[in-house]
Amino acid sequence: MSEPLNWDATFAIAQALNRQYPDLKLGDVSLRQIYLWTIALPEFSDDPLIANEGILADIYKVWFEETIHDDK
Q1: 1 near 49, Cβ under 8 Å?
Q2: Whole-angstrom Cα distance, residue 72 to residue 33?
Q3: Cβ-contact 64, 29 below 8 angstroms
Q4: Residue 6: is it exposed, middle or buried by C-beta count within 10 angstroms (0-12/13-18/19+)?
Q5: Are the C-beta atoms of residues 26 and 67 closer than 8 Å to each other?
Q6: What pLDDT, in 10s, does the model give residues 4-33?
Q7: What pTM was estimated for this model as a whole?
Q8: What secondary structure letter does DSSP report for 41?
């Protein structure tokens, strides 16, 4: 079983989202979508109400950087 995810685990959340949506074009993704997908992850166990734009932007940034490295 995977470790529980919380908002501080931006790298782990980005990896989980990348596994869940491997063929997604991140340019088409909103922070709202990242929020909804994150709280829907089975491993997610934090308070959904404490998310903010900064946290979601960090997840997006890490996810984007990971997909760039995967393409090389």
Answers
A1: no
A2: 26
A3: no
A4: middle
A5: yes
A6: 999 999 999 999 999 999 989 888 899 999
A7: 0.90
A8: S
